[in-house]
Fold this sequence. Notes:
504 residues; mainly alpha; homodimer
Amino acid sequence: MSAFEQRLNDFQKLIKKMIAYGEAVGLMHWDLRTGAPKKAVEGRSQVIGQLSGELFRLSTSDEMGAILEELSRPDHEERLNRTQKKMIAVAKKEYDRSKKIPPDLYQQYVVLTSQAESVWEEAKETSDFAKFRPYLEKIVATNLEFIEFLGYETNKYDTLLDMYEPGMTMAKLDQLFGALRERVVPLVAAIQQSPHQPDTSFLKQTFDKEKQRQFNLFILREMCYDLEAGRLDETVHPFAIGLNPGDVRITTKFVLDDLATALFGTIHEGGHALYEQNITKDLMGTNLCSGTSMGIHESQSRFWENMVGRSYSFWQRYYGELQQTFSGLLDGVPLSDFYRAINESKPSLIRTESDEVTYNLHIMIRYEIEKALFEETVSVADLPEFWNEKYRDYLGVVPANDGEGVLQDVHWAGGMFGYFPSYALGNMYAAQFRHTLLGQMPDMEDKIAKGDLLPIKEWLTEQIYQYGKLLDPGEIVLQVTGEELNPDYLVRYLEEKYKPIYKL
Amino acid sequence: MSAFEQRLNDFQKLIKKMIAYGEAVGLMHWDLRTGAPKKAVEGRSQVIGQLSGELFRLSTSDEMGAILEELSRPDHEERLNRTQKKMIAVAKKEYDRSKKIPPDLYQQYVVLTSQAESVWEEAKETSDFAKFRPYLEKIVATNLEFIEFLGYETNKYDTLLDMYEPGMTMAKLDQLFGALRERVVPLVAAIQQSPHQPDTSFLKQTFDKEKQRQFNLFILREMCYDLEAGRLDETVHPFAIGLNPGDVRITTKFVLDDLATALFGTIHEGGHALYEQNITKDLMGTNLCSGTSMGIHESQSRFWENMVGRSYSFWQRYYGELQQTFSGLLDGVPLSDFYRAINESKPSLIRTESDEVTYNLHIMIRYEIEKALFEETVSVADLPEFWNEKYRDYLGVVPANDGEGVLQDVHWAGGMFGYFPSYALGNMYAAQFRHTLLGQMPDMEDKIAKGDLLPIKEWLTEQIYQYGKLLDPGEIVLQVTGEELNPDYLVRYLEEKYKPIYKL
């Protein structure tokens, strides 16, 4: 074995070890949320800490540094195939980033955010922003320090964005969100003023949990979610987790008096899971075997949830089964009423409960706040007011207190600045992919109306899923759609869908 | 920090790391058996291999070697407390054992036994001993090699016994089993000849699974199994697994047309779990925080299953609830008939389905075979005949084929020689502990009849559970009962219980 081959071998061994730790930690997280006994937590947290620490040490080890340096030598690099090159690039990005931050500072930050999360919980419950404020101030200040260590080109905030959406910048987001805002804000207003508001009362009857579970499982199978490579459990906060390509689990939340919560939650997580289940097996055992970014991931959950699962075609096929499953509850409700009910759009205060149209505005508000924080044009102390103003401007609603206002999301307590935009990017990517898909599969809606979802899953697999992290989000969107991310597709999709629903 | 303190610190850190790997691997095993999707297995096996390998490397690392050597220095040793001394002794025993076996030989053996397990499965199904024979020959031969590397004093087989029951020897077992055989073989014969055989037909009706689950959970709570530190799941082969003292899970197998399978399986695993749940919290984070040996562990599962769960007193308290739960099925069955039915004793071919009395004979047969193999007085080729002869002698039954004969257990395919005796030792320990308990708590049966099981659990905790591995099995039995393991207690218990049942 040549020195080069030896190095490559060492690299792959190191990556495999890191994957093993990651998978073990993933399973422990899943278990803690789905059914671990209460008293397991103390010991389990220590084990998670131990293995996560080990994982971090490996990713920043001298061994990793030496391997990456050698393999990046021009004479070595040209002997690498495409997958190997990308594996090294991904590992190197992580290595460089972790190495630039002083370990002590990072350690303090981990403690800070974990304290902040519990303080936030109390502060939210009592709507007491003052309590949370000093923590948030420190978290923002530490992130600013991080940015100094990590470096930035034009805007400090770009460094944070890149962590969740490689290649995304404030300049691009300003443009994307600007275009979106211009047409979504008036759409939201028009919807609100429409005299044709849907009746949603029939979604609020009592729906037997076991029947809900059975129907959700049925829909998952129809979506081509592979239940031999996954399972459905119940949690307070639904999620999808890919442990390996043969084990991608999802959870949902059954609410007895709200049919929509579990149903669309399950389809949403199912979309995330389809992505992870369909990454090519060739990437197993590499650090590329997961979704390429938060935004692309969210595009898949949103595509399946809203563009398939909340489409008229979908319910042409499945509404009969739904009526039968909950016999007596929906018998007198025509399909058209059901369709309008599940697509109700209404300005609200809480992001996680908002609909497809207004959701984007919730995200834009958070984006503008984060931007202002990292451009240092607003202070943490002013956030509650800033937040309330934005809600009034964009959505026409004002929180009664900070608990349902600036304190509503956990993200900032955890230091996740730069994450929120992914949610809206997901909607934009999804609409743009859908546009291309419709061009190549003009009978897509007919297929959906027949429950023939396999070709759609296969198209997404070929275009997106199979690549894992082999392609960056920007490369994917360009390769699939032939152009860069363009917010027009989302706006057009929303207008085309919602104008008929609200008779605008 | 002194050099000594530094070393001690390093040692504790290393142990904590090993515990973390062990707990992660444990959870992955639990998950694979309870509900992991089928396609998870491929990836998960690699992760388990990776982490188990890491665990083995840590336990035999140069770092561990150096730490153990230093801490064992006389001037250091005297500064250690009791727990630290035992921690070092346990780690050292494992280190020494692992270090003596050449890694290549061990690696080949791991491959051999994993192949042997799948060959065994086929061989068992087709009753084809010839197919399994070459594997078993190699496994025995490799174990003989291991023994040469590990060393032995009087008998080679002692080295294997010590792995599962520290301190146990062939000489002791010969004496224990000899005494047992002398009185159990006639008891079995007398039971078989009794004209008063219990009617068990009412245990074979159809018992609703959900009701079985609820009743099993109720009994677990009554036993003081802490469901906030555990959970009950369903598997083909029931087991208990202690992940940490706050997370000790059990599984059971529900058989619709056999009430006894799940019920007594659950109580059995519940006994194992009580042990692990009640180790003192002081031992958390040490390598002493689990049951001290297979035999002592089995004593607890057997004590709860047979001496509590199959006692008349127990059903004086719970039979009413059982009848109510399965209303209509047991209404006409008097308690005394039920008690006799759940204590039916009948010579059979299959160990795992055998009763409290005959079980010991199944074990003795295996012990005699293992002994003969390692004294090299019988060859693998002769095992089927040897087996059948022993069954005829001890139990009066002869297998129709090797599938229900010599091929029935997986243990030998996995190389687990020296393990079987633990099962019978468990029965002996249990009876001896029970005798002491009865001396100190003369109203034990009254307590059981009132469902007042807490004092019993507390006594066992104080006497046995709390210590974990801090005491060896021999030390425990001496400390609790004031004498060495004595088979008379088991014989007396069996005679006292079964003579009335069979009117002998």
